[in-house]
Amino acid sequence: MCGRYASFRDAQDLADEFAIADLADDARLLPPSWNVAPTDPVRIVVERAAKDTGEVRRSLRVARWGLVPSWAKDPGVGARMINARAESLLDKPAFAKPFAARRCLVPADGYYEWRRIETPPAPGSTARRPTVTKQPFFIHPDGPTVAAFAGLYEFWRDPAKADDDPTRWLVSTTIITTDAAPALASIHDRMPLTLAPDRWDAWLDPAVGKDEAAGLLVAPEVRMEAQEVAPLVNSVANNGPELVRAL
Q: What single DSSP character describes residue 76?
């Protein structure tokens, strides 16, 4: 799974990287984060048709991490939907609907994963079980490019708010995961599905149907590197460049 990631690149740099036409103010002003956690506001790249002209434009917007289905009674369910397995997208009602028409890219500078390490009891110790620790890794693209995680987004209407309340709509997102690449499988068996640039247009295009979109979710072609980092990322209170610094 992907439970923490880093997104510290400047919004204008992302706009240039993804050929953004509309840069929303909240996306431009969102501060950098080296420790993005579930329910945090995050940047997403979407394509939607303008209501007045029908023109499809690409924009950088903000969504809450953790998808809230349109039929949910409250937004709290989103905390359990930060990831969506690529293999079962069409089998889950919460993901099948947005997969058909509301796909997005989630820009990231890298993500964190933890390797489980078991240390046997020392000779003569009274302990019967091994000591379990978890070593965090920062996993990022090989090179200066940004990672584009395949994602979905959804709209949820708060029934407790008036029709003229600008905050009545919540936009939320989830990151699609797949089997880990062989070089990363020793750390964790899952990883975010990173789309190569030549697949961005088709993935974002709302006119592309679910069958064609499913064909884009193949083994990741973007090479990722892993480096051990300090356990600072374990606490959401820590947030700074030192989190991604290799040990």
A: G
- Containing H/E element for 226? strand 224-228
104 among known catalytic residues: no
Residue tagged 């020392």 (tokens):
122
> Which stretches within the chain are classed as H helix?
11-17, 25-29, 93-101, 200-204, 210-214
Token code pair at residue 96? 């099948």
Nearest Cα residue to 105 out of 35, 43, 171, 17:
43
Is 2 catalytic? The answer is yes
Please give the pLDDT value at position 201: 96
Q: Is the pLDDT of residue 137 over 80?
A: yes
- How much is the average pLDDT of 69-80? 93
pLDDT (tens digit per residue) in 149-192: 999 999 999 988 898 888 889 999 999 999 999 999 999 999 99
Q: List C-alpha distances in Å: 202 to 79, 103, 117, 148, 195.
A: 28, 10, 40, 13, 11
Contact 210, 99 (CB under 8 A): yes
pLDDT at 220: 65
Can you tell me which residue has the tokens 């040990």?
247
- Provide the token pair at 43: 């940047």
Q: Which of the residues 55, 87, 104, 113 is marked catalytic?
A: 113
Average pLDDT, the chain: 93
Is the predicted pLDDT of residue 16 greater than 70, yes or no? yes
